[in-house]
Amino acid sequence: MNELALAIPWLGKRNPLAARWLVIAIAIAAPLVAMAFGRTWVRVLDFALLYILLALGLNLVVGFAGLLDLGYIAFYAVGAYTAAFLASPHFDVHLPIWIVLPLAACFAATAGITLGFPVLRLRGDYLAIVTLGFGEIVRIFMNNLNYPINITNGPQGINALDPVVLFGWDLSRNIQVTEELSINSLFLYYYFFLLCVVGSIIFIQRLQISRVGRAWAAMRDDELAAKAIGINTRNMKLLAFALGATFGGVSGVLFGTFQGFVSPESFSLMESIAVLTMVVFGGMGNIAGAIVGAIILSALPEILRHLAVPVQQALFGHVLLDPEVLRMLLLSLAMILMMLLRPSGLIPASAKYSHIRYLKAKGVTE
Amino acid sequence: MEIFLQQIVNGLVVGSVYALVALGYTMVYGILGLINFAHGDLVMVGALTALQTMMFLMGVAPGMSPIAMLSLSLLVAIPVCMLLAFTMERLAYRPLRNAPRLAPLITAIGVSFLLQTLAMIIWGRNYHTFPQLISTTPIQPIEGVFITPIQITIIVVSALMMAGLVLLVTKTKLGRAMRATAENHRVAALMGVDTNMIIALTFVIGAALAAVAGVMFASNYGIAHYGMGFMPGLKAFTAAVLGGIGNLGGAMLGGIVLGLVESFGAGYIEHLTFGFLNSSYQDIFAFMILGLVLIFKPTGLLGERVSDRA
Amino acid sequence: MITLLEARNIGKRFGGLQALSDVSLTIRKGEVYGLIGPNGAGKTTFFNVLTGAYTPDGGEFVFNGAVLPSGKPHLVVAQGVARTFQNIRLFRELTALENVMAGHHIRTSAGVWGILTQNKHTVEEERLTTERAYELLRYVGIERFATATAKNLSYGDQRRLEIARALATEPQLLALDEPAAGMNATETVHLKALIEQIRGDGITVLLIEHDVKLVMGLCDRVAVLDFGRKIAEDVPAEVQKNEAVIGAYLGGGQKHAH
């Protein structure tokens, strides 16, 4: 939160308090503004929040603990499919979100640890390839486990997931306030997701400034030295994998229930790369970076989608680059150029791993 | 027995393509310690450039003999890939040679996806039919075992190219400079080796092999598209690790072994899992092998050491 | 004198090289014990085996009467053995204060749940860790750089920071691997004072050092390694007179020098 406020150009450093309120105001007002341009844009914002959750989780693994995970989307898939199995007509099980969410978190964390155990000793680049392979294996299974017993329904995916119901309140239904005025379900989801994002930020900030956060940073900076001061690097890596995966799993549940259907297509390698690009683009090891990266790189392709097609049609008479191509182009260029020109990301990490306030009496200031 | 021999043939064909691509990975890794993620996509660029050339030739000289056409298209595809690899090294990797260890790897992933996207822009999203200029009518050297002329060509050409590479690396001055650079950049530079040039050349040579592999791969299956390089690339990387990364002989051995494992795995997986898994799971073998090798024998079959470069 | 650490017949082989063979030595509580020898004599290997970075091929370490676990660095630290590195290894992106706080990891216990809820135990522990780390920075004399990033400190200060980080693990035995390497004369004098101060506070010090003057002036007892064997162990004055030691330094050892 503070990090995010500080990152605002000009205002952030001069008046942190105003910047803080500005962030809050934007977060609350964004969907209302978006609605003025059409419902699609509220939907884009909803997805942006999901990507923020994913980026925050991946940042935990890549940015804080320094483990390059290219199969991250697999945990998202675990979450989404957990929701599809436990809250849809597919097996005719309809558990409430309060049961699905923790279960999915547990499954994802277990998957994270299962992946973590064998790959712990690998160096960064090997780890990347093995996790990529893991992601692909999960996708291959999702695609093919409709035979001989139909578990995942194969490439068609699973439809009609139950919507999120909070205390008997169905988020997928518009609320009819008066005859004319109704609150769209997209808003309800937006604020629900926003709540999840805020909760996650608080949690991750607390983690960062703790013995766990410092142990991760230590391990990332110099694994041998981390061992030499008594950090159990195996456990710390497993913890990073498990917590990162939990974020993936929770976002997966939200994604599945929001979208109403899941299919293997949503969990391709490209999505893992997209989330990684968000983290890298924003600035690794930095909460604000992950958030800004996720917002820009999830909204920009949508904006391009709406601009590019009419613009190209006006200029060339037909569409040269379809929106999906534009998105890939944007993501790959973002990744390469960022590494070459500004490797620490849009918002370079000025990450803190301690509270100096405990030393105020000694006259230490930041 | 026939089935068994048939699987060996299939495995050898796929395996020699993997081996050819694996050499590119292993050379670059040996010299820079970088997994050049985009190497697999050079396979795709090679195949699609050759396809483009063939289309052009078919338009201007419809009567040209298939062999001449194939050779000409290779003569275009190889330099294109070499030039691309040179550019890639110069623009994307060289500036990051002393950067933190994750930076070049992330860039390489970006380059891989950029190449795929550009290919998608140039050649579209669709699968293209790749002209099979060498016959695909199977012959039966042994009763019940089929092999096509293109498959024979693949095995022979791969073997020749690998032999050529080994000669280049072991017998020539250039090869000695490459080995010296792989051993220690700074010392090699002090000895008067232009290490920047050697590193660029390593990329370029690997690219040439990848281009040939791409054309053969597409000729065998009769299709080409923008994403065709990624999976074979990953598998070739697996082959390189399996054989012992940084080791030329290892890359070749790893390629063949992986080809055989995949071929047998796909053939027998249904029996082994009582019909639960079928051949659509073929791709998981490579990843499982990769995981197992890295966990139990990270030096690979022929590798000596995996130094802690990080 | 109470024995703190006893090395019993430690052996370590790398391929064809016998880096350590049958090394036994005894370090007493409260002393500064020097480990010297020509380059390649096996001093750093001894450190790595002691601190669990390598598993020995033979022998064991007895620390405070209990056998030290081998190959598990974090458990060795938990027992009370801390080390520094010959080529300084700090957490470069963390501040000086955070480096030392990370060193306190093994003596703290907050878990994910405590961190999530910021319960009383966690908050109190975090406050104590911060204060303790600051005290240690002051102890080694670099508290004014508490919020500076480690990589921006000067060479001598980085050495001090590394020692402070090792002290944060609350060791009984502090193993310093060539702490004076690369230091100028003034810095070495300050280092000597710091080591004496540490000893004065009851922490036993094991010192690998090339600077003979520093070793002789600081150590209570000295062991000499040559080609992986212990060739002498005595008070500095006696070691300096030892024929085998003189031979090792003038003869075989010199050709290994860089």
Verbal overview:
The complex is a heterotrimer of chains A (366), B (310) and C (258). Chain A has 366 residues and is mostly helical. Chain A contains 14 helices and six strands. In chain A, strands 1-2 form a two-stranded antiparallel sheet. Chain A has a two-stranded antiparallel sheet with strand order 3-4. Chain A starts with a helix and ends in a 25-residue tail after the last helix. Chain B has a single domain, classed as ABC transporter involved in vitamin B12 uptake, BtuC (Orthogonal Bundle). Helix content of chain B is 72%, strand content 4%. Chain B is built from eleven helices and four strands, in the order ααααβββααααβααα. In chain B, the strands form two sheets. Chain B has a two-stranded antiparallel sheet with strand order 1-4. A two-stranded antiparallel sheet of chain B has the order 2-3. In chain B, strand 2 (139-142) and strand 3 (145-147) form a beta hairpin. In chain B, helix 2 runs antiparallel to helix 3 (66-93) and helix 9 runs parallel beside helix 11 (283-296). Mean pLDDT of chain B is 88; it is low at 305-310. Chain C is α/β, with parallel strands linked by helices and 258 residues long. Chain C contains ten helices and ten strands. Chain C is globular. At the A-B interface, helix 7, helix 12 and helix 14 of A face helix 4, helix 9 and helix 11 of B.
Write the layout of secondary structure elements.
The complex is a heterotrimer of chains A (366), B (310) and C (258).
Chain A: H1 2-6, H2 11-14, H3 16-37, H4 39-64, H5 73-86, E1 87-88, E2 93-94, H6 97-119, H7 124-144, E3 165-166, E4 169-170, E5 175-176, E6 182-183, H8 185-208, H9 211-221, H10 223-228, H11 233-259, H12 269-282, H13 287-316, H14 323-341
Antiparallel strand pairs in A: 1-2, 3-4, 5-6
Chain B: H1 2-32, H2 39-60, H3 66-93, H4 102-123, E1 128-129, E2 139-142, E3 145-147, H5 149-171, H6 173-183, H7 185-190, H8 195-221, E4 223-224, H9 230-243, H10 248-272, H11 283-296
Antiparallel strand pairs in B: 1-4, 2-3
Helix pairs in contact in B: 1-5, 1-8, 1-9, 1-10, 2-3, 2-4, 2-8, 2-9, 3-8, 5-6, 5-8, 6-8, 9-10, 9-11, 10-11
Chain C: E1 3-14, E2 17-28, E3 32-36, H1 43-50, E4 58-63, E5 66-67, H2 73-79, E6 81-83, H3 96-103, H4 112-117, H5 120-140, H6 155-167, E7 173-177, H7 185-200, E8 204-208, H8 212-218, E9 221-226, E10 229-234, H9 236-241, H10 243-250
Parallel strand pairs in C: 3-8, 3-9, 6-7, 7-8
Antiparallel strand pairs in C: 1-2, 1-4, 4-5, 9-10
